[in-house]
Amino acid sequence: MSRRTPPLYQRGKYWLAADERADGTLRTPNLYIWWYDSETRRERSTSTATRDVAAGILALDRVYLADKNEAPAFCHACGQPLAQAQAYLLTDAIADYKIEWGNTRASADTISGRLAHAVAFLDAEQALGAESRFGHSTSCATACGTVFVNAFRAWSRLQPVEWRNGKGEVTVSRPRSPAATEASIAQLIAVLNHAANAEPARSDKRPIYKPLPARQVQRQRRTRIGVEELAKMFAYAAEPDRQRGSLHAFLVASVCTIARPGAVVDISVAPDREQWWPGSPTIDLNPQGRTQNKKHRAVLPVLPLLDRWLREEYETYMALKIPDRAGRGWLVNYHGRAIQDVDRAWDTMLKNIEMPAGREWRPYLLRHSLATLARNNGAEKWDLEGFMGHRAGSQTEVYAIGEFPTVVRALNHIIASIEKLAPGSMHRNATGVVAAGKLAGDKKM
């Protein structure tokens, strides 16, 4: 291979590059992993089967980890396990963590984003040249120290959070919250501990710092909405002849479960998910195959309103031919297909019903507001904690599923109040729905 073009990525003896002819043209658009084979005394390569650089880097990392003679956990001289944090680069530790753990999690995108912020810090330090204290050569030993984490905090505080469109243009930018910085630090700690816990270990050090407590860095959400605002949302979502079905289902499921937005869009009637079936008095917000984490998903009683919506979705699902059922059955869906969130529909709704659109007005507002309304309508603390997943069930509750009667009564009262203000807005095929700006009881100006 011609080495006139610098490698796109290199780790140990392996490097990532295109397969070039002598004249510099490409034999194939796909990227290749190259290395020098000392036994045959020639360069060898294997295709990554992709032209995407990020995917190619991931493929090279996998090859590198599979090579026991090359991985840093082994001594090149004697082949014995070796754990030296001073010799193990932080960038390598991040790559290995993502391959072996992060990329396998449901929260892979979140994990990747937090670690990308840490790598951006190394890039920024590297760009400082001689003035850099850290950079791409930063080892795990260095990253385990307080000097590193304090420098990262200081840098991160000045970096805005940005959203980009398909062209890479920044469309939204806001200051980074301290909580976002601490989330990246917590992810770095996980990376460093993963290196020390590997078998055999790749690092002999662990971080001596912890992320700052949530109560110290998280800004308490103060915004809540009442039944009147909820009624406006339902009237808007249920307005006939509009493409607002996903938003409508999201509102219904949120009111009936007080679940986090991610759990709401994850509700499915597909039998293989084992969340609900016709006649079931409960719904399991944690589908079959998903491991529970700190954001516990509870088994909840099915309110009559939710039961009607689930049954109708189940009938739609069962009416499909068996080959067509794959990927269907989601309660919150777009033309039958799963969605990640309702953010765009939510933003449009807030604008149309003339509600604020600040940071505290994201879809998570429903969970905070409904918890407040439920408590003010008589829900007891113990019931509300279990219903919202703030308290993991005891061993007894593994056998005896909680019915949370005070929460159920409170939610049914809230639903009745919304229905009174916006008649028909709770129906899946809305009938008699009033316009969002003309709710029952509104005074004429």
TrEMBL record:
InterPro entries linked: DNA_brk_join_enz, Integrase-like_cat_sf, Integrase_catalytic
Protein name, per record: Tyr recombinase domain-containing protein
Record flagged with keyword Oxidoreductase: no
Natural source organism: Sphingomonas albertensis
Key words, A-Z: DNA recombination
Source species taxonomy: Bacteria, Pseudomonadati, Pseudomonadota, Alphaproteobacteria, Sphingomonadales
Coiled coil stretches, renumbered: none
Domain Tyr recombinase: 220-415
